[in-house]
Amino acid sequence: MALDLFPAADRDWRAGQWEWLSGRPHCVPDSLRPAFDRIWDARPQRDAFEASKCLRHLGGTFQLDGWGADDAEALGLFDPEVPYHVCWDRCWAAARGLAKGDAMRVSRWDYSTDKPIYEGKREGGRHE
């Protein structure tokens, strides 16, 4: 087996990403395809590639309790002004036990303290 260090320039990243999300182990359902397409229509390719990974938390094997397709907009997935890593951190916050409303307000997750950061402040009011 050879490692493809230089993939062909004509690779269809969008189709490949959907294939990855909808296949095992993620099993994102077809009902999230409209959200996937909306992400790819709203963001540049690199950002869309990364942001669309959050869909596995809205449906499929890694779905967060109480989360679904309706939460994609609140996460910021369709807004190119919201960096994809903020969307990732919001999903991480929910996976770590934050209530959905609190997780949606996270601007960054501090992995060193395992705490959310809301608009430049760490939990507990300490400033960045």
Kindly list the characteristics that best describe this protein:
128 residues, three-stranded antiparallel sheet, mainly alpha, 3 strands, 7% strand
E-strand count: 3
Annotation field: number of helices:
6
Structural class label = mainly alpha
| Quaternary | single chain
- As a whole number of angstroms, the C-alpha radius of gyration is 16 Å
How do the SSEs run, as a string of H and E?
A: HHHHHHEEE
Uncertain stretches: none
Shape: globular
The residue fraction in helices comes out at 25-40%
Largest sheet: 3 strands, antiparallel
**In percent, how much strand structure appears in the residues?**
5-15%
Strands side by side in the biggest sheet: 1-2-3
Mean pLDDT, as a whole number?
89
Distance between the termini: 47 Å
Verbal overview:
The protein is mainly alpha-helical and 128 residues long. It is built from six helices and three strands; from the N terminus they run ααααααβββ. It has helices at 13-22, 33-42, 45-51, 72-75, 84-95, 100-104; strands spanning 108-110, 115-118, 121-122. Strands 1-2-3 form a three-stranded antiparallel sheet. β1 and β2 form a beta hairpin. α2 runs antiparallel to α3 and α3 packs parallel to α5.
Overview in brief:
With 128 residues, the protein is mainly alpha-helical. The protein has helices spanning 13-22, 33-42, 45-51, 72-75, 84-95, 100-104; strands at 108-110, 115-118, 121-122. It has a three-stranded antiparallel β-sheet.
Task: Please give the structural blueprint.
Elements: H1 13-22, H2 33-42, H3 45-51, H4 72-75, H5 84-95, H6 100-104, E1 108-110, E2 115-118, E3 121-122
Antiparallel strand pairs: 1-2, 2-3
Helix pairs in contact: 2-3, 3-5
